[in-house]
């Protein structure tokens, strides 16, 4: 998935900061270092909050037909009724001729995007989402686990107002929010992040943003795809090398027809493990003669080269694959049309 920080000017110039500091007068070095560290916190928090709201709102508008259920309506009004006067006023302004215009400015309004607040915002779109499931989703994600490992040996500490020993996802997110609040209220950061560790913290937040985007798609798939559309791997012939695995699988005749009609190699594929789904790419398809092919054979028996930078496909574990392009429900049971929601 595309990075959320690669185009950020601050992120692009972190490697130059040591050279910048080394070329200033000794008396000014501490001052320059402090400015860089303060701007780092402000910039990274802005990246965090603005992108989370955009990810959530873009998902809401893209999959409105699936999301707009009776449970969503209940959550929507529960959110409005328990919100600040600012949110209530923006909601009232949106009412015109029995239509409600949802905007991220009021429905996803927050001043402090703590980890618990993130869970609450996700639940405004998918009420069935949970903190426990997101943490489970994170633990299986290899990229974010690498980011966490890098932070564990860095100058970045964990923070939590409620938990003296927070998990990594909560602890590092809340550390950023706490530093930003300290800077906003007192002009001082409660914790100083070394210049050498700034890129690590950026990469962590970048991968949390990607994680949230993937988790939302996971929730969407859980709603829209029947379990019988997944196909179990017969065998994992090769565990990941450069994020590529080779698996053996047999599709039934219906799946062969649908997948070939949609072009197997360019379709949107997901792998399911432990009730959670992760995006993958099919690099090559081979038949029983080990020849590379573009379409599934009539008997459906193939080996697939599967690429994924987010989940390790291992032997002796239960993995299933899904072609999302082909198999999803057209209508979601319980979807309500009693109000018109405009975007």
From TrEMBL:
InterPro entries: HEPN_RiboL-PSP
Positions of the RiboL-PSP-HEPN domain: 20-212
Highest taxon of the lineage: Bacteria
Pfam families according to UniProt: HEPN_RiboL-PSP (PF18735)
Record-given protein name: RiboL-PSP-HEPN domain-containing protein
Origin species: Streptococcus oralis
């Amino acid at each position: 998935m595309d990075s959320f920080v690669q185009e950020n000017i601050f992120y692009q110039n972190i490697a130059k900061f040591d050279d910048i500091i080394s070329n200033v007068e000794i008396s000014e070095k501490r001052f320059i270092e402090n400015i860089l560290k303060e701007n780092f916190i402000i910039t990274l928090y802005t990246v965090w909050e603005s992108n989370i709201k955009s990810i959530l709102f873009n998902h809401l508008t893209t999959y409105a037909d699936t999301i707009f259920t009776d449970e969503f309506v209940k959550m929507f009004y529960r959110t409005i009724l328990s919100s600040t006067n600012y949110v209530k006023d923006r909601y009232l302004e949106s009412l015109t001729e029995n239509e409600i215009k949802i905007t991220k400015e009021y429905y996803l309004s927050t001043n402090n995007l703590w980890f618990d607040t993130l869970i609450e915002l996700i639940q405004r779109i998918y009420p069935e989402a949970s903190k426990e499931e997101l943490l489970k989703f994170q633990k299986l994600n290899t990229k974010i686990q690498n980011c966490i490992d890098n932070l564990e040996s860095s100058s970045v500490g964990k923070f939590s107002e409620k938990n003296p020993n927070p998990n990594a996802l909560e602890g590092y997110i809340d550390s950023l929010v706490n530093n930003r609040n300290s800077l906003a209220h007192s002009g001082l950061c409660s914790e100083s992040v070394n210049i050498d560790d700034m890129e690590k913290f950026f990469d962590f937040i970048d991968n949390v943003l990607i994680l949230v985007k993937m988790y939302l798609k996971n929730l969407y798939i859980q709603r829209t795809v029947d379990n019988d559309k997944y196909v179990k791997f017969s065998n994992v012939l090769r565990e990941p090398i450069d994020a590529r695995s080779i698996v053996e699988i047999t599709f039934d005749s219906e799946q062969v027809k649908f997948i070939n009609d949609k072009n197997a190699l360019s379709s949107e594929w997901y792998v399911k493990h432990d009730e959670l789904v992760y995006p993958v790419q099919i690099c090559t398809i081979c038949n029983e003669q080990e020849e590379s092919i573009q379409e599934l054979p009539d008997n459906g028996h193939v080996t697939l080269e599967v690429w994924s930078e987010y989940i390790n496909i291992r032997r002796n574990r239960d993995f299933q694959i899904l072609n999302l392009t082909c198999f999803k429900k057209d209508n979601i049971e319980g979807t309500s049309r009693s109000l018109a929601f405009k975007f």
